[in-house]
Design goal:
13 strands; 231 residues; alpha+beta; Nucleoside Triphosphate Pyrophosphohydrolase
Length: 231
């Protein structure tokens, strides 16, 4: 891993950072490819594919911290992705849209256990309503977390009770929206003599825009590449 540590970005609104491209040239995943059984079969197959995003520019000199997140695919007529908006007072990634998750604790059996434990702590998701189906490659954030995304199906009947200390809101976005590259935007900003790149996938939910960006968008883009490899 690149050990170069850059100064932290000053406070900024990512919505105002220029868009450098939109991936309308890439094909969306079709409805048949986004059904639960198709995704379950994809996770059971060893197919060659390359994650597009593996790490961010480091802005923290803290030792790398292992973490995992749950990528919850809610079993509705058309699958959705469960996401949270973090509260504004958290020390890292405050106010951002994220997957439920956190750092690996010594007592955790594996990364799936971490993701399930954190999901229960953050949004009250009972693991009895969750079927873990696979993982994606690690993604290293600029803040020093080395995150393993854990893919899972979640029952639409699962009751959620968000923890107000960590979660300001819980919502769902259609998987078909997130797996359509026409909704994937590229951004770039100059920072400490380098250009930092990231993606966003803004989703308009009624009158509210859900601005999905940064690490969450990068892991969703990797999910697109992973599922596309099975088509």
């Amino acid at each position: 891993m690149d050990k170069t540590v850059l100064p932290a970005l000053p406070a900024f609104d990512p919505r105002l950072v220029p868009i450098t491209g939109v991936d309308t040239h890439l094909p969306p995943l079709g409805e048949q490819d986004l059904r639960a059984e198709a995704i379950r079969q994809r996770c059971s197959r060893e197919l060659a594919w390359t994650p597009e995003f593996r790490k961010e520019e480091r802005f923290s000199d803290r030792p790398p911290t292992q973490a995992s997140v749950l990528v919850p695919l809610v079993l509705r007529d058309s699958l959705t992705v469960l996401l949270t908006q973090r509260t504004a007072h958290l020390n890292s990634h405050s106010g951002q849209i994220a997957f439920p998750g956190g750092k690996v604790d010594p007592q955790d059996r594996d990364v799936a256990h971490t993701a399930l434990r954190e999901a229960q702590e953050e949004v009250g998701l009972d693991s009895a309503h969750v079927e873990v189906i696979g993982t994606l490659p690690e993604y290293a954030t600029g803040s020093g977390f080395v995150v393993t995304p854990v893919l899972a199906f979640v029952s639409a009947e699962a009751a959620l009770v968000p923890n107000p200390e960590e979660v300001a809101d819980v919502f769902e976005v259609p998987l078909s929206f997130l797996m359509n590259p026409a909704n994937h935007r590229h951004h770039a900003v100059e920072w400490a003599g380098r250009t930092r790149h990231w993606m966003s996938m803004p989703y308009q939910q009624g009158a509210q825009e859900r601005f999905i960006w940064g690490a969450t968008a990068a892991m969703l883009r990797n999910l697109y590449a992973y599922l596309r490899a099975g088509v």
